[in-house]
Amino acid sequence: MLExxxxxxxxxxxxxxxxxxxxxxxxxxxxxxxxxxLRLLDSVRYSVEDAGKRIRPTLALLAAEAVLGSDNLKxxxxxxxxxxxxxxxxxxxxxxxxxxxxxxDLRRGKASNHKKFDEATSLLAGDLLLILPIRVLLSEGRDxxxxxxxxxxxxxxxxxxxxxxxxxxxxxxxxxxxxxxxxDIDTLTLMQRCKTGALLAASAEIGALLAxxxxxxxxxxxxxxHKLGLAFxxxxxxxxxxxxxxxxGKTAGxxxxxxxxxxxxxxxxxxxxxxxxxxxxxxxxxxxQTGLSTDKLELLADYVVSRNY
Length: 309
Ligand code: GRG
Fold this sequence. Notes:
This protein has about 300 residues and is mainly α. It has helices at about 5-25, 40-50, 55-70, 80-95, 115, 120-145, 150-175, 185-210, 215-240, 245-250, 255, 265, 270-290, 295-305; strands at about 105, 110.
């Protein structure tokens, strides 16, 4: 991700920090050791390590930088949240690929978690990655010296985003199974706002919050990232329809195959593309007007719609 040298350092840093975190969690005192959980931990590691573009943690770190006016990555107060958020995201991908959900064999260029392990293990790995991040945020945050009021607000926002994702996924399932038949643009926008937008919005908002932003500033980052989230999802729909499984690292053409309600279906590729670009322009303008924009945040916003996987 974030192929530009300016942003690739964030993926590298997050990759390394996640491995260190998982190593720490497997330490005997953490409650995860013992033969019973070895397979489960392997499954978690499989879906967390060296994987993904790390857009959400990067967004959290960049929002914190924008508030602080400093880009010292080593001391970025959003790091515990950035890691927690990526863990949630990885868990959601494991669940999303299960046969009872989107039923996909390929993820991030390799076998999806239940194909590599088994359904029960993957279900549990996803479950663990739902609750573990709250613990990570609170305990790593405390070790970072973040005050408990900020941490509890961040944990609340993260748990709200997780609830939202789950509701968005439920709506997606209702639509794709035909239980809900009146899906229109409002339904689609709501579904994606919950399923994809909520975690991206929480990333930016929590990053800002941990850096000391006030309520108004947090709201602004939330709104900025929701626009990014919608553009991100529109791009995802376009890539699903136009790219290949090899490039995407996940099965292409699934939306059509599973009769999903998508922006491509409602608007067509060209109009969907134009809408995504417009959203990014609006998002960047919003941030600029308040003086909180940075070159890196704008680079990330552009990447959301220019990415090819
Ligand atoms: C267990 C937290 C949890 C949720 C269960 C399955 C589910 C409910 C929600 C699904 C959420 C989901 C998978 C939304 C799709 C978001 C999306 C387009 C993901 C792809 O994000 P990228 O491109 O992926 O950032 P990488 O692989 O780069 O990390």
